[in-house]
Amino acid sequence: MKNFFVLLMLISGNVFSQITTTPKDPLVKDPYFNSAQNAPQGQKVRLIHSDFFQKTPEKYNGNPYFSGNVQFEHQGSLLSADEVIFYEEQNFVKAIGNVKLQNADGSVITAGEMEYDGNSQKGIAKKNVVLTDPKQTIKTETLYYDRISNKAYFNTGGTISDASNVMYTKSATYDLSSKMIDFTGNVKINNPEYTVEGTNIKQNQNTNTADFFGPTTITNKQNPANQVYTERGSYNMNSKEVYLKKNSRINYNGKILTGDDMYFNQITGFGRAKGNVMLRDPKERRFMKGGYGEIFEKKDSAMMTDRPYAVKILEKDSMYFSAEKILAYQKIDQNNPIKKKSFLRAYRKSRMFKSNIQLRADSLTFNETDGIMHLFGKPIAWSGEKQVTGDKIEAYFDTENEYIDSLKVVGNAFAISKADSLNLKDEFNQVKGKLMTVYYKENKVNLAKVIGNAQAITYADDQNEKTKETERIGVSLSTCGTIEAEFEENKVQIITCNVGANVDTFPMSHISREKRFFPDFNWNTKDRLRKWQDIFLNTPGYDEVKYESDDALYNAAQKVIDDAKLKEEAKKPKRVRK
């Protein structure tokens, strides 16, 4: 019996060696194999096992084929299938049915069909192709595989899935050595927390990072309005960190951050941007610009530096802010927990320009929701030809109707108004005290109420009945506990003067220039903001207006008094020393 089996094996080997594998028709390979036509003969594909061997002219153009638990081996890779056609001279095989290619690196390809060239070590798998390795699984209809470069490629559409992501793409190249996937065309990466959609993405499966080389959008699934867009950047899928380099923007909480070079962490909600930074808040009708910015998504706050400025967009008259640092943030409304209030803060050298009011201070805070602004550090406000200063100023705005309601001045309150803006005489109406509230009417200063050590210097005019021209009567000096002063055009009229009231009115001929000014008079024309671009300057540096002092009547009266004194002195008998 033993000799019989030995004889049978010899006969089988002799028959197999005499098989003619040259087909009746020449082998037509896919163009994918053409690059290896002139390649040197590679190591032969080797049969390991098959249950049956056949060769008939009617099937496979007369080429021999193997069936039943077929296994072929080539340089450490094992190919198994239901049926394999073997082109021995071309060192080429076609596998059909339940095809499986097991590679030495641990990767496995399964398919309905496969062609493999032993010379070029290239293969094409078709029909329900699945490539698996320790990092992910690729599914497609046609897969091109190059063992020498250790790369797999498909362009028939497919999915690539790993432990946390599922990627959909029309075509992709996978480097099994470097674990790098190069997606081309439209790509979608699906994650439980986000989706990535774009074109031309490269993903490193070792580091789990993706590089973007075309328009790409990362969308937060929990809040789809929160998105990251870029045309050049990278994304660390483990740490959820995004680095954005070209035409990028970050959408969060209804806001949009853009810049030349950006970073965002989806876990912490922290982001930063450098170069041409802009933060837009359409809901608040506000945008901020600067050279550097930071956002804190979870705190709903943002910070801007490097020549920052902010614009509150109003239909008729926008508000412009600047400082060395600007913050914008939102807080829960204590009276209504489902609503938020928006705030803006400007630190160091803060400025605000609006056509009907201009402000300067060391710092300011603005409650945009309620329209309340606080100014600290030598604040100063201008409206028309009127100026208000104090230790602290609170400004109240009706942002819905776009007008100023009032100013509240705390400590050393001082309001100054040019008595006649049509001339350059040094004549100024002045009201001062501890506390002052300035009321506006149609965006113009209308009334000032002063409490505590109230004082006023006001110019009184009257109309000449004959010439119908306005003539200066004199100057009133008022000292009261409280004062109400009405501002009407260039006139200031004391309406009430209560609590220890003392009012003296002097004709122009009886009051000197020094008594027409309070000691801390500080009319400032050099630093006033004349246009919105002045917010960027420490001081606009406008020329100080040179006012003329008209003391003709006073000087004439003084001359009369002096002459009278001289006459009186002359009448007195002179003593003669003997």
Automatic annotation (TrEMBL):
<dbReference type="Pfam" id="PF13100">
    <property type="entry name" value="OstA_2"/>
</dbReference>
<protein>
    <submittedName>
        <fullName>Organic solvent tolerance protein OstA</fullName>
    </submittedName>
</protein>
<keyword id="KW-0472">Membrane</keyword>
<dbReference type="GO" id="GO:0009279">
    <property type="term" value="C:cell outer membrane"/>
</dbReference>
<dbReference type="InterPro" id="IPR050218">
    <property type="entry name" value="LptD"/>
</dbReference>
<dbReference type="InterPro" id="IPR005653">
    <property type="entry name" value="OstA-like_N"/>
</dbReference>
<dbReference type="GO" id="GO:1990351">
    <property type="term" value="C:transporter complex"/>
</dbReference>
<keyword id="KW-0998">Cell outer membrane</keyword>
<feature type="signal peptide">
    <location>
        <begin position="1"/>
        <end position="17"/>
    </location>
</feature>
<keyword id="KW-0732">Signal</keyword>
<feature type="domain" description="Organic solvent tolerance-like N-terminal">
    <location>
        <begin position="43"/>
        <end position="197"/>
    </location>
</feature>
